[in-house]
Structure formats: C-alpha cells, structure tokens
Design brief:
The structure is a homodimer. By secondary structure, the first copy, chain A, is of the alpha/beta class. Chain A folds into 2 domains: about 5-70 and about 310-405, Aspartate Aminotransferase, domain 1 (Alpha-Beta Complex), CATH 3.90.1150.10; about 90-290, 3-Layer(aba) Sandwich (Aspartate Aminotransferase, domain 2), CATH 3.40.640.10. The first copy, chain A, starts with 5 loop residues before the first helix and ends with a helix. Chain A has helices spanning about 5-20, 75-85, 95-105, 120-135, 175-185, 210-225, 275-280, 295-310, 310-330, 355-370, 385-405; strands at about 40-45, 45-50, 55-60, 110-115, 140, 170, 190-195, 225-230, 255, 270, 335-340, 345-350, 370. Chain A is globular. Chain A has a 7-stranded mixed beta sheet, sandwiched between helices. A 4-stranded mixed beta sheet of chain A has the order 1-2-3-13. In chain A, β11 and β12 form a beta hairpin. At the A-B interface, α1, β1, α2, α3 and β4 of A face α1, β1, α2, α3 and β4 of B.
Chain lengths: ~400, ~400
C-alpha cells in the first residue's frame, strides 16, 4: 500500500522555487487530501501514471478533456498527421471550416462557430457578443457557477477590481423567482443570462436544470431582447450529442465549448445562432494559436467518435454501475453517500460530514489503492473505462470505507 | 504568375456560412490586399503552402510563433514524444518544473514562472498580479500598443463596456514627459506601467525604446511601489536571449511571453521577480490545457535551440541583408521606403503613400511571386531562412516595385 513518491516530493520542492506556491489553478493538489500526487508522467486510456510510476484509474479525466481516453489512437493520429504538416501557420487550414461545419451540424441551435483556446476565451467572447448584440451591459449569472478565470469571472477576488465585476446580478440556480428578480433588477440593461448546463459548482450537491428554470430563462431573454448563453465547457458532449439543454428542449443563443471537444488537445469554441452572428462578427477577439490546425483535426476525429460510437450510453451505464455499487458498499459500511449530478459527471460526498473529514479519509484511501477520485469537484467518466475498471474501483472503495471509519 | 486559388475560394464561401464574416481575428485577410490566400495546407521551415498548392516564403511566421521553422524536427520530436505519453492529464508533468527552471535561468529578472495558453492570458495575469501586489487599480499604457484581445485590452470597442476600461491612463511611447504626466494622473492609485519591448504598433513606424524612457518607467514604478510589466509576447526571444529590455539594461518586475517560446505549440508564460511572487500566488487563474506537458516539452527544446545556436545573430543578419537589399531596389525604382523596427522584426511601408495604395500594390505583387509580406503589421524573420531565401525575396521585390509603379 505504501507508494513510492520520492520523485513527486523532489519535483514539489523544485517547483516551490520557480512557481508561485509550487503550483496554481485547478490542478494544484494543495486543497486535496494528503497522498495525491502533483506530477504525472503518462496517461493512457482511463489510466494515469505519476512520476514515481504508480498507476491510477482516473475519474477526473484531466478535469474533463479525457472523453475517449488519454492518447486516444484515432484522435491523436489525426492530430499528429496534421501537426507534421505544420500547425500554427500564418493562416488557418481547411480543418477550421470543416470543424465549424461539423459543430454546426451537431448542435441544433448553432449556425456559426468561432474557435479559441481556453474555456474562459469562449465565455468571454459570449459575454462580448451579448453586449455587442444588445448594446447593453448587465448579465445575470447563478451564484457559485464557474464560468472561467478572467477578472470578470474568476472565483477568487485577489487582483480583481470592482469595475471588473460591474453589471453582474446573481440568482440561485433552478430558482425561477430569484431568476425573475435578477432580471427585474437588470431593468432595461439586460445583455444576457448565463447558465451552466447543470449546476456543477464545487463543494455542493449537483443539480440538473428544471424545465421551469430553463424555459423561464429562455422566455425572459426573449422578452428583453437579451441572449441566453449555456456554458457547456465542462459538460459539453458528456450529456448529449447536442447542446446540454437540448435535454430539456431549450435552445440557447450562444453556447461555449471546450475540454472534451478535441479529447484533450487545446481547443475551445463559441457557437451561436444567426440572431447574433452579426454581433459576433463585430467584436475583436484573437489569439496566437487560435487558428492552428492540429487541434481542429483532433476535434474532427473526436466528433466522428461522438457521432459514430455509443460512448454516451456507455459512460452513462458505467456511471450508473459505479453509483449503484458505491451506494451498496456505503450502506454495508454504515455510511450515507450524497451522489449527485448525472451518472457520467458524478459528485460524491458523505452525509453527516460537514467538514469533509470522512470524505477526505475515503478519497485518500482510494488514492492509496490506485483510484483517483475527487472529494469536492464533479468527476468525469471516460469512454475508455470498462466494466472491469468499475469493479476495480468498487473493490477499492469497499476497502476505503473501512479506512474512512478509522 | 496567375496562381490557382479555386480551393481557397471554395473554402471562403463555405466559411462565410459557418464563421462570422468568414474569419475573425488577426489571421483574417479581409484587410489585406487582394490575392492573399486565407487557408493553408502546410508549413515547413520558412515556407507555407496554401490549400491550392501555391508556395510562399513566409515573412509573417504565423505572426510570431515560427522562430526555428515550421514543423521544426527537434522541437516537434520533443512534442510528439511527450504527447504520445499523454498531454492534458489530471496534473502537470515534470516538464512544467523543468520549463519554469529553464525560463528563470534564461531571463535575468525572473525568479518564477506561470504558464498559460494565450498571450492575453499572460498580460491579464500580469495585470491581476500588479493589482493584487499593490492593492491599487490604475495602469499606465502606451497609446496604440497591443496587449491582447480581452475586454480590457482589445483594440476594438464593440462588446466592451466603459467599466472594462476603468483605471487606464495612456501615454506616448518613448515620450518621458507624457509618461510622467500619466503617472501623475494616476495619483496614489498606480498599480503598473505596461510597456511593449519596442513600439510595434500596427500601421505606424516602429521604435526601439529610448534608454531615458525605459529608465524613467523603472524609476516611476519604484517611486510609487508599482510594478513594471514588459509585454514580450510578440518580441520575446527575437531581440535577446533574455527580457527584451535587457538590451537597455532595465529589468521589469513582470514579463509576458508567448508565440516563439514553444516554436508554435500553444504556450504562453508570465515571469516575475521575487518581489511579486506572493501576489502572483494569490490570484486564481487557470485553464483546461494550461498544465498539458507536450507544449512544455516543445518549449524546452526551443529554449535549447535558443541557448545553443546562433539563431539570433542569424535572424539579425538575414534581416539586415533584406533591409539593405530592399532599400537599394526601392532607390533604383524611385521609391522611398520606411523600414523600421529591429531588422529581425521589420515593418516596411512607403514614403508618400498616405492611403497605403503603393504598399498594397507592392505587397500584392510580392504575394503573386510567392513572397508573403505584410503591408502594415511588423513581420518576423525565421531562423529557418537562408541567404538564398533573402535573395529570392529581393528578386521578387525588384519585380514588385515595377508592378507598384503601374
């Protein structure tokens, strides 16, 4: 059980000298239980190897990008083939047009696409497009929702000014009255309503959108001439082969995409309807690598897998099996689990665990057994996982419940 | 001379349907002379091939990333080798530490590094770090300088609110008095002075920084407790094997990097001194692909080439030969050229050409002869260029001067 972690320890010491706090952003393990490795040497399929050679069945999937497995052969062949002919050139390749066509073909509300690199790029472009379209400034967002890490949206306020947050009104997710109140407060200045496809905030139970909430958001935007933005960066392609709100029959005007769309190659996208095409064409946004072809070739290969395989049904089935098995094991050991979110984007926390101490012990014990779970961020199922992998995770979980009691 | 462009035409028509305006950002050719291809199929060394198979000697270098040639064998071997073992995982690889160490080793003022994807990410992180460090908001920037395409800095104001631009005071580059006036106007709220390493604004003559300007910026920051930020995204590694202001002996507190640092693989960086390490560690910034290892492996290979080859001296020599040859050819044909900027980052415009009509004809004629010049944006020399390439460009330029007269 005692894993070797000498290289990880050495790298953390070196990192402390040349990286603020030794690491930053969502991949810092500073807030995770002891024993979580910081540095990895390899990923293949559903598995990760840390720099000390320990192997993990990885339920974080790179925090989203791994949908079809790390180093997926089909996706990476497309990537490498294009990269060998040059990637970031002085202009885009035909892949950019093909990919825009493919995204527009896949996503019902979309008539056009723009590509970028970060999820934050896409949400910021959505914000700018809505403000350009409406000539208004105010946006309504759900409290606690994550839409990126630029000054207007990062969850930490250091280095952020009040002006960066001007024109933002918050509501409660799935609370129609609070949504209506926020829109009323915006008065005649409403540019957009931002919506997460599901409530996938950290540290709290996940929620699927109610039909009433999604429909009311659509109606309020239509009444006010504002744009409805669904931020599908994290959940896109994991809930549907379309915008995630297609599941409740509500079409946004703009949707933002990233993470899974190129199975880990750096790419994000803003999709929009004809209504706001002109506004999108009036903003000036760009980036040094936004027109590079290899990630777009990888995305085309990813979308082929999306259209032609049963990845979605399989990740749901794998997630449901995991959920059921964990509930059974928890009950055997006298624990109650709060398993929330869609099965393929599970968040697992414990009942009666206000300071998350049980959860931290359980996750640490899973980690020690080669299973990478997260105690307070939604996890991700990979289509590269097998039923055998789920059984392996469930066996480890069973042992981990014993450890969590101690 | 008549190039085939049927595939480019076809792709443009398809793009009009699925991309706003058919293209966006700095790689749209909408504002370039007729005959500029929009779509490319291949890049190798100093050359590009458009989707119709026409070849160009490319003086734009992807707007900067191509420093050692497109598809550079040494850089791409490092990239592919790492990518095959998994790229965007659930945590960074050891390459992140190695690269932070390499950047800190290369750049005199730097004690730490943070990596990101866009140049705009790095400049935005610099802004946030300065505001976090000083607990103040106001920044001084040079009028017309480009620092990215987020709402706080994009050169086009559509979709941007006045609040996005709060706390910005502008001065004239290289004008010490206007810099001092801007700092006075900031009163006791100065967080940072942003500086381009050279004045490399579009459409106007380029300028190297005067020693007086650079030194005064440093002094004013020190007097006020503000941070000096040199935005080396575009020019970094092209002027010096260090921060570009090392050439005038002035050390910034923060510097931003991108484009050339991984020779075209998507990577950017913020470097800082110990003074602002704590502030950098207090902001929350992140991105889905920021911790991916392959681009960092590519950057390590690029920095090896930076340290161990004479690329810098060669690109300067190639640029000087081009500049001299163009001046001679222009004189023979009765034109006066305004060639400004460092030889390896040349901007070429015409005297007595207020509406740029001569320049557009000349650039179009060069393009028709297989030489990709830009009429109003600084260009970039690649270390993959040879003296023979420069001769080829000069021959084409000679012919193009005749065409520009007509």
């Amino acid at each position: 059980m005692a894993r070797i972690n000498s290289r990880d320890t050495d790298l953390r010491e070196r990192a402390q000298k040349v990286i603020p706090n030794g690491m930053y952003g969502h991949q810092s393990v500073a807030r995770l239980p002891e024993g979580y490795p910081q540095f990895f040497s390899r990923g293949e399929g559903a598995y990760l190897w840390d720099v000390d050679g320990n192997r993990y069945l990885d339920f974080m999937c790179g925090y989203g990008p791994n949908l079809f497995g790390y180093a997926n052969a089909q996706v990476d062949a497309a990537y490498f083939d294009r990269a060998r002919r040059g990637d970031a050139l002085t202009g885009p390749g035909e892949e950019m047009v093909q990919l825009a066509e493919a995204m527009v073909g896949l996503v019902s509300h979309a008539d056009w696409a723009m590509f970028c690199k970060n999820g934050t790029d896409a949400t910021t472009m959505a914000l700018m497009t809505a403000r350009s379209h409406t000539r208004k400034s105010t946006i309504v967002l759900a409290k606690g929702a994550y839409h990126g890490a630029a000054p207007w949206c990062t969850p930490v306020l250091n280095g952020v000014t009040p002006a960066d947050r001007a024109g933002q009104i918050f509501c409660e997710y799935n609370d129609v009255e609070s949504l209506e109140a926020a829109v009323r407060e915006a008065g005649d200045d409403l540019a957009a309503i931002f919506a997460s496809p599901i409530k996938h905030d950290v540290l709290v139970d996940q929620q699927s959108p109610t039909l009433a909430y999604a429909k009311r958001a659509r109606e309020l935007c239509d009444e006010r001439g504002a744009l409805l933005i669904v931020d599908d960066v994290r959940a896109g392609l994991r809930l549907a082969r379309d915008s995630s709100w297609s599941l409740v029959g509500v079409e946004p005007d703009l949707s933002t995409w990233g993470k899974a769309i190129a199975n880990g190659h750096p790419l994000s996208a803003l999709l929009g309807s004809d209504k706001c095409r002109q506004a999108a064409g009036e903003i000036f946004v760009t980036g040094s690598y936004w027109f590079a072809s290899a990630a777009m070739a990888a995305s085309l290969a990813t979308l082929t897998l999306v259209r032609e395989t049963d990845y979605l049904e399989r990740t749901i089935a794998l997630g449901e099996r995991l959920r059921k098995g964990l509930d059974e094991a928890a009950a055997r050991h006298g624990f109650g689990l709060r398993q929330t979110g869609p099965a393929q984007l599970p968040l697992i926390m414990f009942e009666d665990d206000p300071d998350a101490a049980i959860g931290y012990r359980w996750n640490a014990a899973l980690m020690a057994r080669g299973v990478y779970f997260h105690p307070w961020h939604n996890m991700f199922m990979s289509a590269a996982m097998t039923l055998g992998d789920i059984d392996f995770a469930l066996e480890a979980a069973d042992e981990a419940f014993k450890a969590a009691k101690a």
